[in-house]
Amino acid sequence: MIKKVKRETKMKNNLVRIGIFLVLFSLLIFTGIIPGRAFTGYYFNGGYKKVSNKGAAITCETQNPYVAPDSWISVWAMTCNLSLGSNENYAQVGWLKEDGWSNPRYFYEYSSKVTGARDQRLFATAQSGSHNDFMVGSDSTYMYFKLNGTELGRISLSTLNWTPDTVEFFGEPHDFDDQCPGSVSNPVTMGNAQYKTTSGSWVSAGVTEYHDLSTMANNIDTGDTTWEIWDTRY
Question: How far apart are CA 95 and CA 64, in angstroms?
Fold first, then answer.
């Protein structure tokens, strides 16, 4: 029971922090001043695309990075709404490693500031060195989360009640001492980035590069759909 309470508290704190990021990210994207986005506790390395959509997908390598005490690291594909300003509206799927875990795990997570719905679900150990297909998408009724084509779960669109306008594909540490996933000699590969159009077709998602910290690196050129990310200290 104590463990469960701690886990739920940590999850809620994580969701609140992610919500704060989405508020700031939305303001900066829509005002064209992305480079000033960074703030203590949330750091991103990868790419994004502003586009009306019904989902995001990527093939991503799993690694086992160092996680600082009381921190966590994740790599994911996300569909989200950033135009509503202060709202934390997103759905993501990928892999996650928390302090104290010997290996990362697959996960999905969603949040709706509109309705108050939010949850995080954890799954099997994510094998380091494996490459997996992560997809979060929606049909006329549900938002669904898939790993290698197998559905992990779904949530009704009426429960979320927000319309996606951006897709994101990031590695996300939360502490300066965290290892951004990847190293100089062994970067994390993120490939075949896609989004689902509002008409229901999956198409390439050529991204715009973004990274927060000087210790983060990637080889993204504008419009790329495949790239690598790494930590320059490793």
Answer: 10
Secondary structure class of 74 (helix, strand, coil):
strand
User: What is the value of pTM for the model shown?
Assistant: 0.83
Name residue 143's beta-bridge partners: 138, 155
pLDDT band for 181, please (50, 70, 90 cuts). Answer: very high
Alpha helices in the chain (DSSP H): 2-31, 157-160
What single string gives the DSSP state of each residue in 97-142? EETT-SS-EEEEEEE-TTT--EEEEEEEEPPTT-EEEEEEEE-SSE
For residue 81, the domain's CATH number is 2.60.120.200
**How many structural domains is the chain composed of?**
1
CB contact set of 188 (below 8 Å; sequence gap of 6+): 60, 61, 63, 75, 171, 181, 182, 228, 229, 230
